[in-house]
Amino acid sequence: MNVLPVTDYKSTISTASPNTITSNAVPSLPDRLRQQKGGAVPLSMTELSNKNKHPLEYHLNNYEKAQESRKLQQYRQIFGIAEPMKRMMDLNIINATDFAPVNSNGNISGNLPHRDILLNKEFTFDWEDVYKDDLEYNNEIGNDIHSKIEKNIGL
Fold first, then answer.
1. H helices of 26-118, where?
2. In whole angstroms, how far apart are CA 140 and each of 109, 137, 143, 152?
3. Helix (H, G, I), strand (E, B) or coil at 41
4. d(C-alpha 123, C-alpha 117), whole Å
5. 1 falls in which pLDDT band (50, 70, 90)?
6. Hey, which family's this protein in (predicted)?
């Protein structure tokens, strides 16, 4: 019984010519990855930037952009090219203006109702809609959501 291999053992066994690189699993098949002839597609810059991220995180970050693109494609199929162009032009005009409505506290809010209407988000709620401008004052006593509800109800 030999524990160590004998010195005249073969390191590779190949049925092909010695100049071709073959697969370790199936020696009769050529190894395309080691030959670097096709089979591999180079990564794009977006894939390289998301290299250490989970694919779900990438999709969540681009969710709104993908939904907007899908919606514009549907508008184009239904109404023609004029409707998505009109919406994009309106959205660019609204983003370029410096109109900011005043909320009930007298502070200027960053919420643009015209933009929400164009993006069909007038009925969606974000954190800014619930907590308004009090996000930076959350460390004060009595400034939580329960205190605000009690104050509004009159308890």
1. 32-35, 45-49, 55-61, 63-79, 82-96, 113-118
2. 21, 6, 6, 18
3. coil
4. 9
5. very low
6. Belongs to the POMP/UMP1 family.
Sorted by sequence, the CB contacts under 8 Å of residue 107 that are 6+ apart come out as 133
Helix 82-96 to helix 63-79 angle (10° resolution) is 140
pTM of the model: 0.45
Contact predicate 97/107, CB 8 Å: no
Are 100 and 109 a contacting pair, CB within 8 Å?
Answer: yes
Rg of the chain, C-alpha, whole Å: 31
Task: Name residue 48's amino acid.
Answer: L
Which two three-digit tokens encode residue 115?
């933009």
DSSP H/E element including 153: helix 145-153
Region 132-146 average pLDDT: 59
21 neighbors 27 (Cβ within 8 angstroms): no
For residue 83, the model assigns a pLDDT of: 93
Q: pLDDT at residue 154 above 90? A: no
The sign of the torsion formed by the CA atoms of 58, 63, 65, 70 equals: positive
Look at residue 69 and tell me whether its pLDDT is greater than 70.
Answer: yes
Cβ atoms of 112 and 100 within 8 Å: the answer is yes
* Mean per-residue pLDDT of the chain: 71
